[in-house]
C-alpha cells in the first residue's frame, strides 16, 4: 500500500476527526465531503481552503468572545446571533449594520455594547437567523464612516436578556442648556475669530499640540490649569460675547461676570486631557459654549465613576459645585463618539443602552469657555483636591509608614485582598510572557531549580520544560489557577518563603516588590530572594518604573493603541479587544494625561469606592505618567468574572441594581513606582549579591542579580 503524504493532491483531510472538535451546526455547515473532493479535484481544494480559513476565523471569534466576554456560542440554531467584528468598537455604526441584518429577516433587537467589537442580533424566527448565519458569515463590508474593510463572523447564542436602562445622572452641579444661541448668532461668533491675526502679546494665540487656541482677558496656562493674575491681556473680552454673558447672568446660569475667555478649536481626532481647573485660579462657575459641532465630554469622579456627557452644537455647559471642583473633565482624542441613535436624547449623559447606541462622526467644534478669575483663596468643601487647602490637608493626613504594623495593614487591604477578589479577571489578562523574561529562563542550564516568587497565574512556570520550576503567591485564588494548569505552586508571603537556604539555581520576581509599602520591606523582599539562591545563582527582578517615558520613547502602558494596520479581517485582539481589556484592568479611561488625585475618606458615598476608605494616597489615572511614587492604581472589575471564576454578563443586570454595582466594582492596588537607580541602590546595600545587569523594559526597571 502506498503512502499518501499530507498536502499532496491525493490526501484527504479526516473530516470525521475534524468534526470531533467542532459544534455540530458548524461541522454541518462546513463539512468537507470526501466524494466531492474526489470528483472536483484542485478547484474544489482551493474552495475548501477558503472554507477552512473561514472556519478557523469563526472558531477564533467564538473563543475570543468566551475568553473576553463570557459569551458562550452554541452549535444549534437559535433566534440570536453574535456578529463578531460588527460592533461599535470596530467602527461599525448602527444604521449600516441594521440595514445589513434586516436583509435576512425581521430584526426584533440589535444590541451594540459601547467600545465592543461585536453586536447581538435577535431575529423573529430561527429560520431568519439561520439565513443570516449563512449569508453574513465571512462577509466583507466597507465601513461607511472610514472606508475600511472588516469581515464579519457569525455564531449562534442562546437567549440574551437585557433590562431597560435607567439614565445616568449628570455629575452634581452640572447643567446643560440646549440652543442657547441661534444658528445666525453661532455663525457670527465663529466668523469673529481671526485665527491668522498677528497678536501683539506673545502666547495670546498659539497652537497647543496642533489644536488652535486663543485667550482673552488672561492667558490660560495648560501646564498648571491656571492664569497669571498679574498679567492681564489688553482688550478684555470680545464685544460679541456681551449679549451672551448678559443672557447667562439674567437666566441665573452664572453669578459672576467672567473676565477670562479661552477659545479652542477641535478638529476630529483632537481632544484635551482630563483635568480640574485649579481651585485657587477661578470662581465656582465655569461655562463652555459648543459651536460648529457637538462632542462627548468625559467626566470622572476620584472613585472611578465616569459619565459621558453629550454637548450638542450651540449648547451651553455649566459646571458648578462638585462637578467643577471634584470631577475631572476632558475630551478623548478620537474621530467618532458613541451617542444615542434615537432622537429621544441628544443632550446630557450618554446612557449605556446597548439597544440605542451608535457612532457619530465628529465635526470641527469651537468652544468658548468663560471663567471668572478668583481673588481670594478657595474655601470649597473638597479640601482633598483643593490647592488652597492642600497644605492643611497634608498635615492632617495619617502616614501609612509609621510602623511595620501599619505597612502590613496597608498591603493586606490594598494588595492581598484585592488580588483575591480580582484573581480570575486578572489571570484572563495575563497570558503573554515578556520576551526578556522568557530569554532569561531559556538561557538557564537544563535541570535548574527555579522559584517564581509572586507567580500570579503561573504564566512563566511552563516557559522552559527543561527547568524544575515552583511558584508561590500570596493569593490563594491565583495559586488555585496555577493548579488548574498543572503547575507546582503554593501560598506564601514573599518576605518569608518556606524553602531551604541556597536551594535554588535561579529566582524570578516579576511585578511583586513594588507592592511593598516601605523601603525596608522592599529590601527585605530582595534579601529573601538572595537567601533562596545558591552561590552563583541568579535572580531577575522587574518593578514598575516612575519613568513611563524613557529615551524619548513612551512605554506600552502609555500607548493607547497597540495594533498594527491591515488586520481588519480578523477579530482585532490588539485594538478592539485590547481596548476592552485595558478598560477592565487598567482603568477604563481613554484619558491621555491627568494629575494624580487624593481621595477624601469623608466623601465615599458609593459602594464602588469602599476599598479606598481611610486612604490618603493619590489615585493614579491609568495610561498616564506618574506624578507620585506611592499611589493607588484602579482595577475595574467589569464584564469579566468574579473571584470564583463565574461568568458575569452585563446585559443581564438592570441599571442601578446592587448586582450591577458589584459587577462594576473598582478596586485599588497599592504601588510604589521606582525612580531610575532606586532598585540598584537598594540591591547594592546587600553584600551577598552583585548586580550583573540592569536595564529598562517597557515601563519597568529590571535587574539581574548574582549571589556571591
Protein model, in words:
The model is unreliable at 1-41, 198-209, 392-402, 560-615 and 644-663 (pLDDT under 50). Helix 11 (404-428) packs parallel to helix 13 (476-484). The chain has 708 residues and is of the alpha+beta class. The chain is built from 17 helices and 34 strands. The strands form 9 sheets. Strands 8-16-13-21-11-10-9 form a 7-stranded antiparallel sheet. It has a 7-stranded mixed sheet with strand order 24-23-22-25-26-34-33. It has a 5-stranded antiparallel sheet with strand order 1-7-2-4-3. It is 25% helix and 24% strand.
Termini separation (Å)? 65 Å
Shape: flat
What's the Cα radius of gyration? 29 Å
Strand order of the largest sheet: 8-16-13-21-11-10-9
Q: What amount of the residues lies in strands?
A: 15-25%
Total of helices: 17
Structural category is alpha+beta
Question: Which residue ranges are poorly predicted, with pLDDT under 50 across at least 5 consecutive positions?
Answer: 1-41, 198-209, 392-402, 560-615, 644-663
Determine the fraction of residues in helical runs and give it as a percent range. 25-40%
DSSP strand count? 34
| Biggest beta sheet attributes | 7 strands, antiparallel
- Residue-averaged pLDDT: 77
